[in-house]
Amino acid sequence: xxxxxxxxxLSPSTRAALGVFARYGTIIGLLxxxxxxxxLSPHAFPTYNNFxxxxxxASLAMIIAGGxxxxxxxxxxxxxxxxxxxxxxVLVTGLIVANHxxxxxxxxxxxxxxxxxxxxxxxxxTKLKVNSVIATLGVGTVLVGLSFAYSAGVPIVSGVPxxxxxxxxxxxxxxxxxxxxxMALVFGGLWLLVERTAIGQEIQAVGGxxxxxxxxxxxxxRIKILGFVLSGMCAALTGTLxxxxxxxxxxxAADSYLLTAFAAVFLGSATLRDGExxxxxxxxxxxxxxxxxxxxxxxxxxxxxxxVFQGAILIVAVGLASLGRSLAES
Length: 330
Known about the structure:
- It contains 14 helices and no strands.
- It is mostly helical.
- The chain folds into two domains: 1-46 and 257-330, no CATH class; 59-255, no CATH class.
- The longest helix has 29 residues, at 12-40.
- The radius of gyration is 20 Å and the shape is globular.
- 44% of the residues are buried.
- This is D-ribose transporter subunit membrane component of ABC superfamily.
- It is found in: Cell membrane.
């Protein structure tokens, strides 16, 4: 029996309750988690400094998750984002240290390279008709090889200028850590693009029904490539800021962001909408994950618990998203 058929057999009150849970369960869970952590650790968790520090630490994960959301909205997956971010961190550090390029130039080169990687991913998926999971995983593996070829697997540490570190460690505006500002600009820009522009309507149309979008005159391939380009550029920005935070370019520094980004995106799709991927949901999903990590750290939970938490969150997120879509279609 299909999920849709099953939900149709439920009573109206049960379906309504499940609908509320599917749409608002993540927000309720976030509020409950905040209340519990605040009660258990009133002097450490619910403080302004802790929140700002958590948000600053989470900003890079939010940026890469925001870019991934754009690829997922158009109906594709980008498994290369973590590997790409690691490569960008190595390259931007090398361009500054070894090639003595000005920091703005090096950052712009990385953003352009991120867009180029997105174009490559998009062309492989749209023109060669390769499944996006296989295509982006293959491209990501190539990027790992390029990263090791460039750095020989040795972190680039010596000679990193202080001005580069300030990209991630500085507070240029109202005492707010720079990563939060970058994250706000990225999420604000992506939200405006998707929700308030004609291209955004095309993006949502392609993700909803590519065949219908094509019949409506939308260039589906172009929109899908755009999704990959935005994902690639966000990965580039994430890798750059991570290198500035660490003070080095390390070959696998951002690899772990892949799982966090996917968990946030799918958790976000179960927030406020019936299983639809959207920018605001990804923001909320990332907050749930990072606040959970923060609470576990405050209480001294062992490292393995973070992996258990993140894996469980991903499973719950996909389940809630599937439930929301089933209820919406029934």
